[in-house]
Amino acid sequence: MSVPILWTSTFTSGSLAHQVACVSGVPFEARFISLRAGDHKKPDFLTLNAKGEVPALQLADGTVITEIPAIVFWFAESAPDSGLLPRDATARAKGIEWLAWCHWTMGRSFAAAFNPGYFGDDNAATSIRAAALKRVGKALTLAEDTLRAKGGTLLATPAPSAPDIYLSALASFAGMLKQDIANLAAVNALMARVAAMPGVAAAVAREKAHG
Predict the structure, then answer these.
(1) Residue 1: per-residue pLDDT
(2) Are residues 134 and 191 in the same domain?
(3) pLDDT above 70 coverage of the chain, percent
(4) Residue of 43, 64, 151, 172 with fewest CB within 10 Å of its CB?
């Protein structure tokens, strides 16, 4: 193995890591597995990532990195001029702060909205989903206010950074949840900017081609 392998699944949270990897410009190989088919629970993949989750980044030396913020950080470190994270220590820490916030929000709110039964019994699913959708709305309102205050990006950078790519993915998930985000002008503007990034467009095209 001469380049890192990014194990992911099309149009899932793993797509975010795929997009960041493409934006970084770091050579890597994308390998797609099917969550629907249960590939992430099969012995071969569990040997790679015992958590049974995507994404997972397998480095050339055999090291495996899991969790989106850690994978994003690796690509940012490997491509310091990519703009994925600022070079200034304080701004960089703020970038990681927003990555952590996005990751926590996805796990705590979006995941519960998509699959409430995972977080409680079937009798509680309706209330769990309703509460999760409220948290989704509050999170996106916070993001909208921050984008407005920072001039369009979470870190006030001229171009979208890794946290912006993550936020854009969250906003797209909101659409899948039938959440109306038409009034979030700054969030929608950011989503358009992220979608136009060549690396992001390349990742989306690859996933569409893979089916």
Answers:
(1) 63
(2) yes
(3) 100
(4) 43
User: Any idea of the CA torsion for 138, 140, 87, 57, to the nearest 10 degrees?
Assistant: 100
What is the domain range of residue 206?
Answer: 5-82+199-210
Q: Are residues 182 and 98 in the same domain?
A: yes
Q: φ and ψ at 158, to 5 degrees?
A: -60, -40
**Among residues 153, 147, 118, 116, which one has the least CA distance to residue 134?**
116
Name the one residue in this structure whose structure tokens are 């948290």.
135
Give the whole-angstrom CA distance, residue 44 versus residue 63: 16
Contacts (Cβ under 8 Å, ≥6 apart) of 123: none
**Tally of domains in the chain:** 2
- Report residue 83 as tokens: 């703009």
Dump pLDDT digits (tens) for 25-43: 999 999 999 999 999 999 9
42-49: long-range contacts at Cβ-Cβ below 8 A with a sequence spacing of 24 or more?
A: 45/7, 48/7, 49/7
pLDDT at residue number 119: 80
- The CATH number covering residue 29 comes to 3.40.30.10
Residue 16: which H helix or E strand, with range? helix 14-24
Q: What are phi and psi of 32, to 5 degrees?
A: -100, 135
22 and 114 co-located in one domain: no
**Dihedral angle, C-alpha 40, 43, 47, 48, nearest 10 °:** -30
Q: Is the pLDDT of residue 144 over 80?
A: yes
Contact 23, 165 (CB under 8 A): yes
Do 93 and 152 fall into the same domain? yes
